[in-house]
Amino acid sequence: MAGAGISTPSGIPDFRSPGSGLYSNLEQYDIPYPEAIFELGYFFVNPKPFFMLAKELYPGNYRPNSAHYFLRLLHDKGLLLRLYTQNIDGLERVAGIPPDRLVEAHGTFATATCTVCQRNFPGEDFRGDVMGDRIPRCPVCTGVVKPDIVFFGEQLPQRFLLHLTDFPMADLLFVIGTSLEVEPFASLAGAVRSSVPRVLINRELVGPFAWQQRHNDVAQLGDVVGGVEKLVELLGWNEEMQTLIQKEKEKLDAKDK
Ligand code: OAD
Ligand code: ZN
What we know:
binds 2'-O-acetyl adenosine-5-diphosphoribose; three-stranded parallel sheet; alpha/beta; binds zinc ion; 32% helix
């Protein structure tokens, strides 16, 4: 299970960290209160703040870091049953984790839906609009097109429910870079069997690690990159990890040219 804390080392602010988190830095977006940026009611009146944020997070602006590549390495080794992420920056995909291994619980910019006729489009179709500060419009009915990001009160994607059965099947759970403040995502930490070790890699204790620790819970407190690197070292995967990161860096460099 992952959250915004795995992407702060890539330069993307999280939501709730005091001072640096997005929710304490919303003056530039000119919204009445922080959560308005993800509220449908507000979006229909004024979609501009959301699209300012979308412009910032649109795929292509940021690169994955060791935390993403650690998860990719788990996948390469056939050890990743599923990655449940709350992140909407798409960096899991950029890191090469295939979409079928991913549950993007709070949605994605990879696709977008017309708020009027409900037609679905590739997110790429609207890159030009978003980057050019234009509100994307449906080519069929001219309704406002909203990237498939889950707003407060909206249903989570089908895939969220489809893969819930992963939790009782898992034999290890990593919880990385999330405050576990948002439901229903947060409760999934309690959905693994009680015999299953849960490993938290985060700046502070969160959710059940703070208030209902199990005897086999482990917490590696501090920076996610440091925590992941320590784990990689203990696993003896250092060299593989470096090779993977170097290879992926070259790929991204070539793409940027
Ligand atoms: P939060 O901002 O709530 O929590 C991020 C967590 O990661 C906090 O516990 C931070 O201390 C920790 N953290 C940040 N950077 C770190 C670093 N470099 N090393 C270690 N720990 C670090 O973000 P989420 O839990 O992802 O919804 O927030 C959940 C949801 O709330 C988001 O998906 C978003 C928001 O409303 C939508 O986008 C729809
Ligand atoms: Zn339409």
